[in-house]
Design goal:
heterodimer, A: 78 residues, mainly alpha, 434 Repressor (Amino-terminal Domain), two-stranded antiparallel sheet, elongated, B: 174 residues, 5 helices, 0% strand
Chain lengths: 78, 174
Amino acid sequence: MAIVVKLDELLHQRRMTLTELADKVDITLANLSILKTGKARAVRFSTLEAICEALSCQPGDLLEFEPDRGSAEQAQAA
Amino acid sequence: MSRNQSTALPIAYLTLRILIILNWIYAACLIALLSYSFINEPFLMRALNLASPAENPALVMGVRAVAALGIATVPMNIAMLKRLLAMVDTVRVGDPFVAANAYRLNAIAWLLLGLQAISVVVWAIGKAVSTPAHPLHLNAGLSPAGWLAVIMTFVLARVFAEGTLMRQDLEGTV
């Protein structure tokens, strides 16, 4: 997917673990792990809001669009 | 309505099991009757109120053809009932919105369509061989409820397929 989730990077900057974030945002560790590894198909606004609040960041800090990554993945799938 | 207290599923499960057995019995009876009609022709003549097969050969052939078509519906009925049983099983384990059930419903819709088509053929045979002297009354033909069931099952199959896709999408939503 061309959308990259930079949760790992943000957690590293905030010196926070995924478990700590899960406790703060009240989202299961399994779901956050899906988001972190880029396996999520969609993100709810409520999830985005909770993460941005817990990490004191903007949605743009969490998500990034990388067009080359998407086309490379598509070519690989074909 | 409570899920755990629902008696519909055990009743449906048991009914479907019984119907599968009854279908086998129905097949056995039809095969026996058809075979017996060749072994003991006077028996068939008495049932049809005929003096001899030459009196109305079309009627004799027609009745045998209807019996043969009845036998042909048995595997179709059983295939349909087995798919329904598998669907009930998925409800029992709490996971009915799966692609397999959409395929099962689609197959059931085609089988229902086949059964309706056979019903029309049976009706046509009855009409063709029936005479005022030897009327043949067959309970078959264009049943509005039957055709409605075919359409409904095709629609339900599509609803299940869409529902499965929606569920897959939701599974990836965080």
